[in-house]
């Protein structure tokens, strides 16, 4: 699952991406990361997704521009219960991204 998520996040183009799919993926990964008890499995998630999450969260221009991200924030608010950036930060915390 993490390798497919990595492939998707690496190729993510916010202009063409589907906000509901993106939010659903983040929620699924957060839920899965929350129930994983093995530190080895969390480490695998961290290795597969850590760099992608850092790039997404570190792209300040993306978060300052309101246009495209309004669609993502709306979908994320509905599906994850928080903004896109907050959902990404939660996922990072769950899988242990430093």
Q: How is this structure best summarized?
A:
With 98 residues, this protein is mostly helical.
Write the layout of secondary structure elements.
Layout: H1 2-10, H2 19-35, H3 39-58, H4 60-64, H5 67-79, H6 84-95
Helix pairs in contact: 1-3, 2-5, 2-6, 3-6
Describe the structure.
By secondary structure, this protein is mainly alpha-helical. It has one domain (2-95). The protein is 78% helix and 0% strand. It contains six helices and no strands. The protein has helices at residues 2-10, 19-35, 39-58, 60-64, 67-79, 84-95. Helix 2 packs across helix 5 and helix 2 runs parallel beside helix 6 (84-95). It is globular. The mean pLDDT is 89.
> How many separate structural domains?
1
Major β-sheet annotation: none
Order of helices and strands: HHHHHH
Roughly how many Å apart are the termini?
Answer: 21 Å
Helix content: over 70%
- Alpha-carbon Rg, integer: 13 Å
- Overall form: globular
Strand content: under 5%
